[in-house]
Structures are given as structure tokens and as C-alpha cells.
Write a structure and sequence with these properties.
Strands 3, 7, 8, 11, 12, 19 and 20 form a seven-stranded mixed sheet that branches. Helix content is 28%, strand content 30%. The longest helix has 13 residues. It has two domains: 180 residues, Quinone Oxidoreductase, Chain A, domain 1; 136 residues, NAD(P)-binding Rossmann-like Domain (Rossmann fold). It is built from eleven helices and 20 strands. It comes from Mesobacillus foraminis.
């Protein structure tokens, strides 16, 4: 039996999360109720916690954060087919309209009417239960952990990046920034058959994890010169694809420096400054194709299949685990111990 009330970690003010008791949502006819088992703490959650906004998305009332989630189906709406009570699932967090031009052309990640978990004004998954539209709920294999199922969400960003970057088997990819998104992008590139994966960061501890996630080579920018190392690794040619995940203006510039003539650049990281200086002459001279990456679309089945391969142990990026009661402590850990923290996992149940 499910109780009427549940616990939720609610952001009530800047840098303030309170554990509250709220009503368990009732699933609509096209929804399922999910008992949340694991939720990853994302950089966007930390931005809302510290600053109350990301661009035009502003926290104007108390909100439940968390969008990288997995759990068990415990109740099913009357019109739902293909899901059963007890199924273990991964949750795609963005409910799109299905009617706009972007949805109809298959790029539903650009839907202007998307209701995305933990993006104001919509609540997220740092709570014991959520109701979710059934078409956004994906069963996972029995052998897949709740942690891996939660990490399907950030992994999907990496999958979308290599898809948009047109990575082909046997190619060389360089990834600027070995935070959680950079690391899962390295794993996605490995699964896609990249011959050489070069991970770049300022922290050696992150580069060490990158090697475990699929990077064949690393560059520590505190000690090594980017251009020299790329030339050494690629015999002076440059990478076929450069992916920026750090959200750093210098990293954006580094992608242009590192990619070969006729190569591709994919920008994933959101820089704190809106305008970033780049060398237009180099973009033209090299005839570089540049693309932006916003979330993902049609990635979940593929991502779940890729993460079912035992060679990809995405849980290596998990550095800390907290119960729901200690969600505020988890946020403070993410903010004040960046050197030793990659992905934090919260356990609502």
C-alpha cells in the first residue's frame, strides 16, 4: 500500500533545501507513478541552488530539483499500455508537446513547450514518487542497476553529441573537459567505435577516471601544451571531432585549435559568458563544421542498450552517495569539493 504523503527535498530559497512532507501525485490516464530509487545530482541543479536561475529559467517559487532518475513503476494510468507494475525503469525527463514543428520533424529537444523535470516551474525527482507520462518511461534490463539507469540521462547528452558530431568508427575524438558529461561522452565515443579518444582537463584525478571510461590518451593542461600534445598524438593532423563539455571559453577555442582541416566541432558546455571569442579565420581556413548540442532526442533505447554492455562501467563516475534526508549536504559537497567530486547520487527510498 502507498501512503498519501511522501518526503521531498525542496529548494525554498537560495542555498536552502528543506525536507518536506507533500502529497504523492496521482497519475493521469497517460501516466505512471514511479517510486524513485536513484537520482543523479546535475550541475544545473547546483546552478539553481546557488543562483536561482539558468539563463531565462528563473526559480520563482519553491521547487524540487533532480532530473537524472530511475525507479519502479507502482501504479499505472488507465490508458497506459506496455508497462506493468513492478517494472524497473529509467526516466526521460522532458515531456514535449508533440505538435510543434520541432516535435514533428523529430527534434523534440527543441520543443518550446517542453515540461522538463527540475526546470522552473516544474518539479523534479528529489522525492519519493513522481508521476511521469508513460512514453517517457523506459524499462531497463534486470541486471542494470538503478544508478546506471539514472545515468542514462547524462549519458544521452554524450550520445547526442557524438551523433550530432557524426562520429564514425575508427575516427579520433578529443573531448575538452572531463567532468561528468565529458566522461560519459568518452564512454559513448568508445561504444561508437572511436579509434582514439583524447581527454583534456586541468585535474589529474579526472583524467585518471577518463582512462577508465574509454579515453586512450589524456592531456593535463596544468602541465602540458594542448597543441603540442594533439600534434603528437595525431601525427600533426588533428582530431576528426572535437567536443567541448567544460563550458569554458578557452575550451571552445581549444576545440578549433585541435580539430583537423575539414573536421567537426560540437559544443555541449554552457559558458557563463554568452559571447565567446573564437578565431573565425581558423574556422574558415579549416572549413570546420560547428554544431550546438542541446539535451538529446531519441537516445534512451540506444543509451540503455549501450550501457547494458558490461565493458562500459558508467558508475565509475559516482563519487558520493547520500540519502534523501541529506540532500542539502550533497549540494554543499558538490560546491565545495569539486576536486574530489564527480557525480553524486541521491537515494529517495
Amino acid at each position: 500500500m502507498i501512503e498519501d504523503k511522501m518526503k521531498a527535498a525542496v529548494l525554498t530559497d537560495l542555498n536552502k533545501i528543506e525536507l518536506q512532507e507533500i502529497k504523492i501525485p496521482d497519475p493521469k490516464d497517460d501516466e505512471v507513478l514511479i517510486e524513485i530509487k536513484a537520482v543523479g545530482l546535475c550541475g544545473s541543479d547546483v546552478h539553481y541552488y546557488q543562483h536561482g536561475r539558468i539563463g531565462d529559467f528563473i526559480v520563482e517559487k519553491p521547487i524540487i530539483l533532480g532530473h537524472e532518475a530511475s525507479g519502479n513503476v507502482v501504479e499505472i494510468g488507465r490508458n497506459v499500455k506496455g508497462l506493468t507494475v513492478g517494472q524497473r525503469v529509467s526516466i526521460e525527463p522532458g515531456a514535449t508537446c508533440g505538435e510543434c514543428e520541432y516535435c514533428k520533424e523529430g527534434r523534440y529537444n527543441l520543443c518550446p513547450s517542453v515540461e522538463f523535470l527540475a526546470t522552473p516551474p516544474y518539479d523534479g525527482a528529489f522525492c519519493e514518487y513522481i508521476a511521469m507520462r508513460a512514453d517517457l518511461v523506459f524499462p531497463i534490463p534486470e541486471e542494470m542497476s538503478y544508478e546506471t539507469a539514472a545515468l542514462v540521462e547524462p549519458f544521452s547528452v554524450g550520445v547526442h553529441a557524438i551523433n550530432r558530431g557524426r562520429l564514425s568508427p575508427g575516427e579520433t575524438v578529443i573531448i575538452m573537459g572531463m567532468g561528468p558529461i565529458g566522461l560519459v561522452t568518452a564512454a559513448a565515443a568508445k561504444a561508437a567505435g572511436a579509434r582514439m579518444i583524447i581527454g583534456v582537463d586541468l585535474e589529474q584525478s579526472r583524467l585518471d577516471v577518463a582512462k577508465e571510461m574509454g579515453a586512450t590518451h589524456t592531456i593535463n593542461l596544468r602541465e602540458e601544451n594542448l597543441k603540442e600534445k594533439v600534434n603528437l598524438y595525431t601525427n600533426g593532423t588533428g582530431a576528426d571531432l572535437a567536443i567541448e563539455t567544460a563550458g569554458s571559453p578557452k575550451a571552445v577555442q581549444g576545440t578549433i585549435e585541435s580539430v583537423r582541416k575539414g573536421g567537426r566541432v560540437a559544443i555541449v558546455g554552457m559558458s557563463p559568458q554568452d559571447e565567446v571569442p573564437v578565431s573565425v579565420s581558423k574556422i574558415i581556413d579549416k572549413e570546420i563544421d560547428m554544431v550546438g548540442i542541446f539535451r538529446y532526442h531519441h537516445t534512451y533505447p540506444m543509451a540503455i542498450e549501450m550501457l547494458s554492455n558490461p565493458e562500459i562501467d558508467i558508475e565509475k563516475i559516482i563519487t558520493n552517495k547520500y540519502p534523501l534526508n541529506d540532500t542539502a549536504e550533497a549540494f554543499e559537497k558538490a560546491i565545495h569539493d569539486k576536486t574530489n567530486t564527480l557525480k553524486i547520487m541521491i537515494y529517495p527510498n
